[in-house]
Amino acid sequence: MNRLSGRAVAWVGLVVVILVVGLGGPNAAAHGTTAAVYALAALSINIILGYTGQLSLGHQGLVGTGALFAAYVTTAHGLPFQIALAIGGLTGGLAAVLVGFVALRISGLYLALITLVFGLTLEQSLFELTTFTGGGAGEAANRPSFLLPNDRYYYLCLVVVVVVCYLDSRLTRSKAGRAFKAIKEDERVAAAMGINVVGYKLLAFTLSGVVAGVAGALFAFATQQFVGSDFDFRLALVFVVMTVVGGAGSRAGVVAGAVLFAILHDFIAAFGPFKSFAGLFPTQTGANLLQFGPDLIGALLLLLTLAFNPGGLAQQMAPLVRWMTGGPFREPRRRPPAVVVEALEAAGIETDEPAGAET
Amino acid sequence: MHGMVLASFGGSVGVPMANGLVNGCLWGLLAIGIVLVYKANGIFNFAQGEFGSMAALIAVAAVDGLGPFPKMPMPIAMILGLLAGVLCGVATERLVVRPLFRSPRATLLVATAGVALFLASLQALFTGTDLSHVFPAIGGSHHFALFGSLSNPDAYIFGWTQISRVLVLLAVAIGAVVFFRTRYGLGILAVSQDPVAANTVGINVKRISMLTWGLAGLLGAAAGLIDVPGGPYQPGLVSGILTGVGPLVFAFIGAVLGGMTSLPGAFVGSLALGLIDSFAGRYMPASVPGGEALVVFGVLLLVLLFRPTGLLGRET
To answer: Which of residues 276 through 315 in chain A touch B, CB cutoff 8 A?
Structure first.
């Protein structure tokens, strides 16, 4: 079996595994849908945290805005699903522009604080407006009949994730993608190179908001209801945590992190040894352990990632991802440019060591 | 006649003012801890609130006799709570901040948020969402009234719980003035200005960093212990991670209003924010949900745009 077909087998295997989730019954499909929505949220955070190096603690507000307006136009105005999805993305992007227009003039840690307060403010004001939500009861977001079965909806979410991943890969290779990278490395150097720092940060924030809004719309149609209190600060933290654990900056990594956190709760709750461990405690404590244990493990994963594995899951997945996208499995040994090698060898210096030439 | 004038003043101005100042005291206590860490390490410490929630949990457990604790009188429970807060602060410094100290500041912010999530979930393992653990109000049910009598709906009714908030903040303010004249306080100030130079003149920077975080833990614990009396204990109550909004967010805004690097600024900024929030809650139309949140968000944006050094902050 040559390398190309080995790769093909791996791809087919991956696709089959992802598709089979939809066939595992309505419950498995619902989990898959959650994973897809989380993946979109992680891709959204990744655009600003991974590519541009900015931190948002208010993304649940953008996701919630998309969810709210998608539900609102469907239920109150009877617009079709596709339009509602687009409106979710547009409103998410619009909310991001509004907060970004002001917030991105203020740099660094203050951005995290502003986005945090922004998210909380949306949760208490916009998401509670009776015009849109009928009070705290929530707004219905019914799926059209052709998407009603959970498995069909799961496949639709998969398509959206694939499309967003493709657009994201185009983005990173564009002029804007390179500008984001420069801004992440050093804002002042980027500005000195003629990059419009505030403009590109706003662009990153807007694109991130659009993806977050689409994620929110899909979330609303997944539960068929918008409830404002779903979009709380804890969710914002979970979004950031799963992006960092997955490996901010790596598309495959953040999607893997999102899938991990989407299934973490139910996986841990269903995990035999953990169940018997919880059974050792009094009933109430055992139930708490099953309910809040996953958050505890998520926070621990975050701290361990930051301390020992700053590249996140992407660091471990790198050889696999490189191989599946056509490269070698092992990292090719990087040698200094030929000119340097010649000069060094002429001077009688050993060049096998990857010396300072590449750093 | 005189009573009626007093009551209408109370309803329109006095009660929101008193409420705002009492809330501002709680936020100010947290804000001082936030500013202390920011001055020393340049870190936005999102775990500051959870130092307080942990302290509150320990104190509630000790008063109620939960888990391993025998039933204890309230003062001892509170001392245990303060110790728990200090322990959390020092542990955060040793286990999280020091290993990551050379990382970008945004990474450390994510790390302290991770500590907050960890501590809140840890508390939830013990109490869950059960609201039956109530820390008794300080001074029992004895109440006082301002701007009218106890039976007057427009009067400001308060107890020793509210008085203790004001007293604790005053005590911390006086304590801070004294502390920053001692060699340890001066050490913290020196390290915050220039760690390398401070090290050169013989200050043990590592020990000062631990002292800073221990103090932050103590301040956070004090905030938690003045927040919890008279109400149910909830996991993550000070930072609001599991409950929605907690005092921590307001403390951050208060610290920013004060300029983020000024301890008196944090104090004044939080009190000002308390007043703004309270009056917005009283006068924003009830048809606008979250009216005070909108006003507070607006104030934060305006301050950061037009006066990023805050009310009392200096150019750095």
So the answer is: 284-285, 287-289, 291-293, 295-296, 298-300, 302-303, 306-307, 310
Residues B72 and B117 in one domain: yes
Please judge whether A117 and B249 are an interchain contact, meaning their C-beta atoms are less than 8 angstroms apart.
Answer: yes
* Residue B100 C-alpha, separation from nearest chain A C-alpha, in angstroms: 6
Establish, for the pair of chains A and B, how many residue pairs have beta carbons separated by less than 8 Å: 140
ipTM of the complex: 0.86
Confidence (pTM)? 0.86
Neighbours of B265 (CB within 10 A): 25
Whose tokens are 């020992």? That residue is A308
Percentage of residues of chain B with pLDDT beyond 70: 93
Inform me whether the C-beta atom of residue A110 falls under 8 Å from chain B C-beta atoms.
Answer: yes
Question: A145: how many CB neighbours lie within 10 A of its CB?
Answer: 7
In a domain, B28, yes or no: no
- 1.20.140, 1.20.120, 3.40.50, 1.10.3470: CATH of A3-270: 1.10.3470
Long-range contacts of range A322-329, CB-CB < 8 Å, 24 or more positions apart?
A323/A7, A323/A10, A324/A7, A324/A10, A324/A11, A324/A14, A326/A7
Residues in chain A closer than 8 A to B128 (CB atoms): 284, 287-288, 291-292
Higher pLDDT, A266 or B236: B236
B315 located within any domain: yes
Look at the alpha carbons of A124, A37, A202, B253 in this order and tell me if their dihedral is positive or negative. Answer: positive
Q: Which chain B residue has the Cα nearest residue A229? A: B244
Determine the structural domain holding residue B302 and report its residue range. Answer: 245-281+291-316
Q: Which residue of B has its CA nearest to A108?
A: B106
For residues B262-284, average pLDDT: 87
Query: What secondary structure, in 3-state letters, does A247-281 show?
Result: CCCCHHHHHHHHHHHHHHHHHHHHCHHHHHHHHCC
Q: How confident is the model at residue A2 (pLDDT cuts 50, 70, 90)?
A: low
Q: Please tell me the predicted confidence (pLDDT) of residue A207.
A: 95
Chain B residues with CB-CB distance to A54 below 8 A: 106
User: How confident is residue B29, by pLDDT bands cut at 50, 70 and 90?
Assistant: very high
Q: Which residue has the higher pLDDT, B152 or B282?
A: B282
Q: Is A129 on the interface with B (CB under 8 A)?
A: yes
CB contact under 8 A, B249 and A114: no
